[in-house]
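<given_protein>
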Amino acid sequence: MITVTVFRRNGGFAGFRSEGHAGYADAGEDIICAAVSALTINCVNSVESIAGDEVVTEESDGFLSCRFPSGLSEGGRILVESMLLGLRMISGTTGEDGKPFLRVVIEEVS
């Protein structure tokens, strides 16, 4: 299962972390992993390139960590909200056993 944890601070976004593999299909054919990757990586690129906000990332196989050390502009916030909308839609997809492939967690940080 993929878990995406979104970190909130004082009503805003501090960053997010995506980890794991969906297990929907074999590597290279897993549309759930591809969709989550597209949403999260596009969010990082868009927040940095379109909103102009500072982004610090760390990546490895099945892992993406993203922090917004200077906070987010209104545009950056909207882009993260858009990513969350897409992730929540995907999180409703379950396997034949009824188990989800994606879990979205919101965590308040100090």
The beta strands are 2-9, 12-19, 56-60, 63-67, 102-108. The longest strand covers residues 2-9.
